[in-house]
Amino acid sequence: MIRHRSIPRALLIMMALLLIAGLSLPGAVCHAKKAAKGEWAFPEHYPKKFDGEGYIDSIGKDGIVIDDRSFGFSPFVQFSTPTRKRASRSQFRPGDLVGYIANQKKQIEALYLLSK
């Protein structure tokens, strides 16, 4: 009887260890994604750091929605793509991944295309 009890205990311990390992893995994966973002190679005209980044939900003449956050454009907003330092707003579309620089009024001063 002792022998039959040791097998289920060992199995229970192995299952508990797998569960613990499985729960800790997503945190490690998320951390790895953040480290990879810091290592992106951007063109020289891009800043080293953005105030924020995300996917465009909608973009209009006066403002933009990025990841459900609404921003207005500053009067002197600058748009940039990897190939053009001074690009047009029309080159940005919903679904594009962008980085941005914002002022104290939550207005976008510079918008950078990261990927399509």
Q: Can you identify the CATH class of the largest domain?
A: Mainly Beta
What topology, given as strand order, has the largest sheet? 1-2-3-5-4
Name the structural class.
alpha+beta
Output the helix-strand order: HEEEEE
At the third CATH level, what is the topology name of the largest domain? OB fold (Dihydrolipoamide Acetyltransferase, E2P)
Shape summary: elongated
Mean pLDDT: 81
Largest sheet: 5 strands, mixed, barrel
Question: Can you put this structure into words, describing what you see?
Answer:
The N and C termini lie far apart (64 Å). This protein has a 5-stranded mixed β-barrel. The chain is built from 1 helix and 5 strands. With 116 residues, the chain is α+β, with helices and mostly antiparallel strands. The chain is 32% helix and 34% strand. It has one helix spanning 2-38; strands at 52-59, 63-66, 69-80, 97-102, 107-115. It has 2 domains: 1-39; 52-115, OB fold (Dihydrolipoamide Acetyltransferase, E2P) (Beta Barrel), CATH 2.40.50.
